[in-house]
Each structure stands twice: as C-alpha cells, then as structure tokens.
Specification:
By secondary structure, this protein is α+β, with helices and mostly antiparallel strands. It has one domain. Helix content is 34%, strand content 9%. The protein has 3 helices and 5 strands, in the order αααβββββ. It has helices at 8-22, 36-49, 54-61; strands at 69-70, 73-74, 83-84, 89-90, 97-98. A hairpin with a 4-residue loop joins strand 3 and strand 4 (89-90). The longest helix is centred in the first third of the chain and has 15 residues, at 8-22. The N and C termini lie far apart (26 Å).
Length: 110
C-alpha cells in the first residue's frame, strides 16, 4: 500500500478507535510528554504493556478525539511530526495507528 493512501483496514480501525474514544475510554492525557525523559518513559510503557493491545495503546498514549491544548499550544495530530497527512496516520513506531487530524495524544511533537 502506498504511504499516502489509506486502505480499508485503516478506515475500519480509525472508526473503531473513534468509537472507543467517543464511548468514554479514559486515557492518560496528562501529563503531556514535555521532555525526552517523559517521552522515553511513555515509549517504554507502550513497548512493555501495550504490544498487540489497542486499548492499552490508546490509554498509555493519552489519545483524545479532540485537540488538547498544553502550555498555550494546541496539539492536534495534524501538526505532529509523526502524522502522515494524506493517509491520516500516526507513524510513531510504537503507535502506527490511523488517526483523525483533530485528535491528540500526549506524545505530540513538532
């Protein structure tokens, strides 16, 4: 599959994630990963606790179905360095998930 095109699996998974988030899944939105140490800690947790478990992945990464603002800066997926615009996809190796542009997670980076 080309990097810039979403496949049906991405669309199906994105919809399933949207349902979980809209259904009230409580995720670890705070604290945001504002330092290299915090990023490393969250990545280590994703690797050890969430491999193959979508729910744990969403919780640990702190996903929301809306943009989060931290320290006066909006942090939507669409402005994150890991976001593939045309595919609507997060390519952070520990996540690798289809996402919506207006969603957010605490691993957001510019």
């Amino acid at each position: 599959m080309a990097e810039d095109s979403a496949g049906p699996d991405d669309d199906t998974l994105r919809e399933a994630i949207a349902r979980r988030l809209a259904g009230g899944l409580e995720t670890e939105v705070w604290p945001r990963a504002e330092s290299s140490e915090m990023v490393s800690e969250i990545i280590a947790r994703l690797r050890s606790e969430a491999t193959g478990d979508l729910g744990r992945k969403l919780v640990i990464a702190g996903f929301t179905d809306h943009t989060v603002e931290a320290n006066g800066l909006e942090q939507p997926c669409e402005t994150c360095m890991y976001y593939l615009v045309h595919r609507r996809f997060c390519e952070l190796p520990e996540l690798m998930l289809p996402v919506e542009a207006g969603w957010s997670c605490r691993l957001w980076r510019i």
